[in-house]
Amino acid sequence: MPAPRPAATGPAASTMQPLEKLTSLQRAAVLMMLFGERAAAAVLRNLSPSEVQHLGAAMYSVGDVDQLTLEHVVEHFLVELTNETGLNHGAPVYIRSMMTEALGEDKAQSIISRINPSSVERPIEILDWMDARSIAELIIDEHPQIIALVVACLEYSLAADVLTLLPEDIQPDIVRRIADLTSIQPEALRDLEQVMQRKFKASATTRASQIGGVKAAARIMNFTRSQTEQRIMREVRKEDKDLMQSIMENMFVFENLEQSDERSLQTLLRSVDNEQLVLALKGASEGLRDKLLGCMSTRAAANLKDEMEALGPVRLTDVQEAQKAIVATARKLSDEGTIVLAGRGGEQMV
């Protein structure tokens, strides 16, 4: 590959202009295309199903990237790589090994699941590689408790899609059962695997796995469409008002963004579609609207205000769906550790 071209008007001007053509995901896709098949495959093996899907789509979109942009992507990557301290590389493996040596397998897993829930091995992970409709068809004839266990094991966005595809009359019951879950013991997990074994081969951990619970139910509801969410929560309220309230308190809604820090909001805004943001702000409180506009440049904020005024009246359902989409993006960035979201009551949602 040729050496990066010298800057014409200073390093910042030369570097940023080509890079601005690509999103961060597309930059990663460019690098993947340069790695070669074997190295790229090794990277993909360490990604989640949704990450593989998004990165794969981005790889298709960068096939015609020009040489100058390609050079700057590589240059930017090398600079970022140089700046990495490497302190956190391998830390999860080290911590798990250390705690297992000190406490034993079961106690170590219990501690790790509490201090870093994202590190917990999840049962029947093969489901993450299936589409929502296939999973729904797979479990639709099972007992509601089995359905709840399976849905609770899924990534939250996928779980929301599966929930939506299940019969409407059982959806509230499934959410209630998920909210009542705390953990699934090895014996119950083995029973679940036996039930599903006739339909697909599964390989899962034999340790107790933390799944379900009110927070899991809330996060699944965060990814459902507004009308579905409202209908399900009404039904849950009929059966258990306190449970409904607990789920609602753990849900992250659009207005909660006002409690988040400016740096996180700036990162979020760079990842949000402008049309969605215009729609979402039409139904936002004045405080949240001012805070989000304050995270933009003066020119960008002025342009956004003009677009909101030009849009005129819009349907409430369109506003709600736009806000849902932005919340889903915020959740994804939060789960990746890119931003920190402040939840209700000042609780951090990470």
Looking at this protein, list some descriptive labels:
single chain; 350 residues; Annexin V, domain 1; 3 domains; 1% strand
Describe the protein in words.
The chain has 350 residues and is mainly α. 65% of the residues lie in helices and 1% in strands. The chain contains 20 helices and two strands. The protein has a two-stranded antiparallel ribbon. α11 (171-180) packs across α13 (214-222). The longest helix is centred in the C-terminal third of the chain and has 20 residues, at 316-335. The protein is globular, with a radius of gyration of 23 Å.
List how many beta strands DSSP finds. Answer: 2
Could you give the distance between the termini?
A: 40 Å
CATH class group of the largest domain: Mainly Alpha
Q: How many domains comprise the coordinates?
A: 3
Structural class: mainly alpha
What portion of residues is helical? 55-70%
**CATH domain fold name of the largest domain:** Annexin V, domain 1
The shape is globular
- Helical stretch tally: 20
The radius of gyration computed from the alpha-carbon positions, rounded to a whole number of angstroms, is 23 Å
Q: Helix and strand string, N-terminal first?
A: HHHHHHHHHHHHHHHHHHHHEE
Give me a quick take on this structure.
The chain has 350 residues and is mostly helical. It has 3 domains: 11-83, no CATH class; 122-250, Flagellar motor switch protein FliG, alpha-alpha superhelical domain (Annexin V, domain 1, Orthogonal Bundle); 254-349, Annexin V, domain 1 (Orthogonal Bundle), CATH 1.10.220.30.
